[in-house]
Specification:
Elements lengths: L2 H14 L14 H6 L10 E6 L6 H14 L19 E5 H4 L10 H4 L2 E5 L7 H5 L5 E3 L5 E3 L9 H5 L6 E2 L23 E2 L5 H4 L6 H4 L5 E5 L6 H8 L1 E3 L11 E6 L6
The structure holds iron/sulfur cluster (SF4) (3 copies).
């Protein structure tokens, strides 16, 4: 076992015990709080993201953020044409406006919006139904808002997949390892029979880095603290009209989409 893998498993083990790993990023809820799926009183930090779809100009812009995520997280490439679609494993992907905002589309929206692709990932919801239904607490919410997934505690019941209104979770129907294009030894692989999803790059945040997709997005994605009124993230939110996915289900996503409005500096 590599040192990095050992370190990861130590972090995952501490996380599964609900212990504090880092004062700001990794203080976890108690099991009772985690299973409730409810927010704790403000910890002064709630991590979130904006995605400015106007800044995605071509397919390469989308592929760059997908590749950045999937390559460092050992996400297998199970091609739907070659494998059954249900086998697909994804942490970040794209879909149409109509599928992204089904309650918010109308026939008069500009054609360029209707034909645009939207990057999708786990929304790290403030009220995450996936956490509420997990019988083993393999998925849990941290005080900083990140909804994490511990593959070592996952029994593959897929209750979380049924509960997530966004299709943000993937199940490994087959052993994913043969389908990893180039394995990154610094991040653990998963096994057949477990669920996985975007983690908001918790392992990079621990090193003071931005999420990988944000880093390569050329300014189209902004990550930060929603609870900090002076953060760049809040500046983006206060100067643009944004949408969250499926507001009617009450999950309160932490991912916001910039659809239009004035540009922002810095
Ligand atoms: S998007 Fe889905 S998987 Fe992510 S926190 Fe919300 S309900 Fe859970
Ligand atoms: S599949 Fe895993 S993470 Fe999802 S609800 Fe079941 S045990 Fe929890
Ligand atoms: S935040 Fe990290 S884990 Fe989530 S989609 Fe972006 S790169 Fe992947």
């Amino acid at each position: 076992m590599s040192v990095d893998r050992r370190k990861f498993l130590k972090i995952a083990g501490l996380a599964s015990l609900g212990l504090a790993l880092n004062p700001s990023d990794f203080i976890l809820m108690s099991p009772a709080e985690a299973s409730s799926g409810k927010s704790l009183p403000s910890s002064g930090e709630r991590l979130g993201m904006t995605i400015d779809v106007r800044k995605f100009k071509n397919d390469a812009d989308y592929q760059r953020i997908i590749d950045a995520c999937h390559s460092i997280h050992n996400v297998p490439t199970l091609i739907p044409e070659k494998n059954d679609i249900k086998n697909e494993v994804k942490w970040i992907w794209t879909d149409t406006y109509g599928h992204t905002f089904p309650e918010q589309i109308n026939e008069y929206h500009p054609q360029d919006i209707k034909s645009k692709k939207f990057p999708l990932l786990c929304n790290h919801c403030d009220h995450p139904p996936c956490v509420r239904v997990c019988p083993t607490k393999a998925t849990f919410k941290s005080k900083n808002g990140i909804v994490s997934q511990d593959p070592h505690r996952c029994i593959g019941c897929r209750f979380c997949m049924a509960a997530c209104p966004y299709g943000s979770r993937s199940f490994n129907w087959v052993d994913p390892r043969p389908y990893i294009a180039k394995r990154d030894p610094s991040f653990p692989t998963r096994t057949m029979g477990v669920v996985e999803k975007c983690t908001f790059c918790v392992e990079r945040l621990a090193k003071g880095l931005q999420p990988a997709c944000v880093e390569v997005s050329k300014g189209a994605m902004v990550f930060g603290n929603l609870a900090d009124a002076h953060s760049k993230l809040r500046r983006v939110l206060s100067t643009h009209y944004t949408l969250r996915r499926k507001p009617a289900v009450g999950t309160m996503p932490s991912v916001f989409y910039v659809i239009g409005g004035q540009d922002y500096a810095g």
